[in-house]
Amino acid sequence: MSRALPKYNKRRVVVIGAAAALALTGAVVVNSALAGESSKGAATNAQTLAAGPGTITCPDVASQLPAIPATAKAEVDRNLALLQTQINEANTRLQNTVGQGGPNFVQNAILGPLKDKRVSTIDRIAISIGRKGTKPQGLNALAGCALNAGGAANNGGAAGNAGNNGNNANAGNNANAGNKGNAGNNGNAGNAGNTGNAGNANGVGTISCPDVASQLPAIPATAKAEVDRNLALLQTQINEANTRLQNTVGQGGPNFVQNAILGPLQGKRESTIDRIAISIGRQGTKPQGLNVLAACKLNK
């Protein structure tokens, strides 16, 4: 025979039931909120991935080489490996500098210096092959690299480089119409005749570099013309850098001059100084350690 519950027990049952219902409702609300947050986070991650800085791609050099003499193979392989290392380093820098600099930062601070390094390395490959075989010509057309389409979202003016491996001569210039045809803005060659001293008028200073000619040993007669030509090129490079310094006042961040002017200039000088040393070494003792003269500085 069932017994009626006391009144206080009935009240307790009602209270417990209400609490359980409230807890269940809260769990549903919390679970719904978490589900919404998860979807939102996934969408955010997808957007972040879509807006990644992309990667740098360069033309393949190895596939464009002629037969490599056995005596040159080790040196050629070493420089081919260096080309890949340079690409890897450039891609690492691309990742580490997202959001830095102005619209031309990627071109000026990464692609430009990378091209200069590749020119020097490709020159060494061609010279190595030419010592015992036919020196390949035109390989420097493979030096320019491009930012692939993945980086277009975050790199402003560099977006014009997306997938344009075949347009390396104009890489990075879409946002800088005044420099069309000057790959990587490296020098504004049309202004090569300027001495760069005008920089003092606007207080931007001038770029100065160590003298190379005074550090050379005796130059064989057969090498003199080539050495003189490259010494003249070193001065032209300084003139171009000073002109660029004038034309870019106020552009970029605090490291603009180093990244976009002094860095690329050093890369060009290293390549030119290498050619001088090689020229002398063909008929005499090749000078060592000249690349310590490649770095330049800004004088205020």
What does this structure look like?
The chain is mainly α. 51% of the residues lie in helices and 3% in strands. The protein has six helices and four strands; from the N terminus they run αβααβαβααβ. It is flat. The N and C termini lie far apart (106 Å).
Secondary structure layout:
Blueprint: H1 7-50, E1 56-57, H2 73-96, H3 105-132, E2 146-147, H4 199-202, E3 206-208, H5 224-247, H6 256-283, E4 297-299
Antiparallel strand pairs: 1-2, 3-4
Helix pairs in contact: 2-3, 3-6, 5-6
Task: Provide keyphrases for this structure.
about 300 residues; mainly alpha; two-stranded antiparallel ribbon; 6 helices; about 50% helix
**% residues in beta strands:** under 5%
Overall structural class, as computed from helix and strand content, comes to mainly alpha
Main beta sheet, described?
Answer: 2 strands, antiparallel
Mean pLDDT: 72
Number of helices: 6
Total number of strands: 4
Give the low-pLDDT segments.
7-51, 151-202
Radius of gyration: 31 Å
What overall form do the CA principal axes indicate? Answer: flat
Percent range for helical residues? 40-55%
